[in-house]
Design goal:
Blueprint lengths: L11 H11 L4 H6 L2 H22 L11 H10 L27 H16 L3 H12 L11 H7 L9 H11 L8 H17 L9 H11 L12 H13 L5 H30 L3 E4 L7 E2 L2 E2 L10 H4 L4 H4 L4 E4 L5 E7 L5 H14 L7 E6 L4 H8 L5 H5 L3 E4 H14 L4 H5 L2 E2 L5
Parallel strand pairs: 5-6, 6-7
Antiparallel strand pairs: 1-4, 2-3, 4-5, 7-8
């Protein structure tokens, strides 16, 4: 098939894409439509800017563990199944001495220049040129896995890249893309752009959609449509497609757990919403959460529909709008900000709160809270200890465990005043661990 797929509106590939979009266990619904996915784009961009700055200032260091790069890549690796293992390419392999961006200052600077160029690019041609310039340095062990960083900077131009995506693309198109070479990645990118154009009504400008389809093909959830002219193979494939709906108990349980996690996150936001109102604050709910069903209505019921101009016009306002819950005082300033980190990356929430606190001097007085399950306390501590988050310790962020919020919220709402009661049941991150 030479790496291309042609398809009439009723052909098997169209059928496959439609079935894939409707499948509650496929990446389209579990990851691509996942609201938390969108929250991570800005925080990852900001994290990569930190990596660039540290390399430019010669403060990045000579190891991956504990670096600002590890912080960013860890956040990507938490993006559900499709990015699991994304950090493997950046881990230092001492026997092979790869990837050679830790021991070689020249290679490290080339990598930093590549990231800096990608952050500033505005066109696809500029991004492709950045890839080719990096490839000319022949940095041992630094291959197209770095495309996952590019995806979170430019999702409409650069698709993610991993073994399952490559395997799915090869199985679908008959191509022979290999891992490890940038030219192979660029060839796959061209093919995915063609597929997206040919199936525009079913896919998305965001290349995460078509990459997700390739991932599900490459990981074996779906079989690719057979080539034309083989009716028996087509019949077998249609039977396989039908069996996908008969999911295993494990897959069903995983989906139920994901739904429960989303419900729990929303429930905790609801607790904070109601507590804030009871304490006399105006409440802002994250812009992408306001319509979530909650308690017979929606999460945004009775809350602010727009941020005050004094906040909306500040640097980082786009990220501030995505903070899970804000309490505003009578002067329309933020009195407290809460990030609920149920199962998702703590990193993304911390970056949003930094955008709030550092966006304007007046916000330095806002109290910042990470709200997380009791069992995630060590997660919170380990993230805050990262060098990349030295500013968090200066801002005196507090950890509010679920159990304390659940146990005391009604009494705080009835008898509390201001933030004193909430601070009393929270713990300063600087005092933990």
């Amino acid at each position: 098939m030479n790496g291309t797929v042609t398809d009439s509106p009723d052909a098997p590939l169209t059928t496959l894409i439609r079935r894939w979009r409707e499948d509650p266990g496929a990446t389209y619904q579990t990851w691509f439509l996942w609201e938390e996915r969108l929250k991570n784009f800005r925080s990852i961009r900001r994290g990569l800017q930190t990596v660039v700055r540290e390399i430019r200032d010669d403060t990045f260091g000579s190891q991956y563990r504990g670096s600002s790069l590890e912080t960013v890549v860890h956040s990507i690796a938490e993006q559900r199944q499709i990015f699991r293992g994304a950090d493997h390419a950046f881990l230092w392999k001492p026997k092979l001495r790869i990837p050679d961006i830790y021991e070689s200052p020249a290679n490290q600077r080339a990598f930093g220049h590549f990231l800096d160029t990608c952050v500033g690019c505005t066109t696809a041609d500029e991004l492709v040129d950045a890839v080719r310039n990096l490839d000319r340095h022949h940095i041992k062990g630094l291959g197209p896995a770095a495309a996952n960083l590019m995806y979170f900077l430019h999702p409409t131009h650069m698709p993610p890249f991993n073994t399952a995506i490559v395997n799915g693309y090869n199985a679908l198109t008959g191509a022979n893309v290999k891992l490890g070479k940038w030219e192979e990645y660029l060839a796959l990118r061209s093919g995915l752009l063609r597929l997206t154009t040919e199936h525009r009504s079913l896919l998305s400008n965001d290349l995460g959609a078509v990459a997700g389809l390739m991932f599900d093909l490459g990981s074996g959830r779906y079989s690719p449509p057979p080539q034309a002219g083989d009716p028996h193979a087509l019949q077998l494939w249609q039977a396989d497609l039908a069996r996908v709906r008969e999911e295993t108990a494990a897959a069903a349980n995983a989906r139920r757990l994901a739904r429960d996690n989303d419900r729990t996150h929303t429930e905790v936001q609801g607790w904070l919403r109601d507590l804030g109102k009871a304490l006399g604050f105006q409440v802002w709910i994250a812009a992408n959460d306001v319509s979530r069903p909650h308690d017979g209505g929606t999460l945004g019921d009775g809350c602010l529909t727009t941020l005050p101009p004094s906040i909306a016009g500040r640097p980082g306002a786009d990220a501030v709008r995505l903070i899970d819950v804000l309490w505003l005082d009578s002067t329309a300033e933020v009195a407290a900000a809460f990030e609920v980190e149920h199962t998702t990356s703590i990193y993304s929430g911390i970056v949003r709160m930094l955008d709030l606190a550092l966006g304007a001097p007046s916000q330095a007085t806002a109290r910042l809270f990470l709200v997380a399950p009791d069992e995630r306390e060590q997660d919170v501590i380990s993230q805050v200890r990262r060098p990349a988050f030295s500013r968090v310790r200066e801002l005196d962020v507090q950890y509010l465990p679920y159990s304390a919020l659940e146990r005391h919220r009604e009494a705080m709402g009835r008898f509390g005043q201001g933030l004193k009661a909430v601070e009393a049941v929270s713990r300063r991150l600087n005092d933990l661990g």
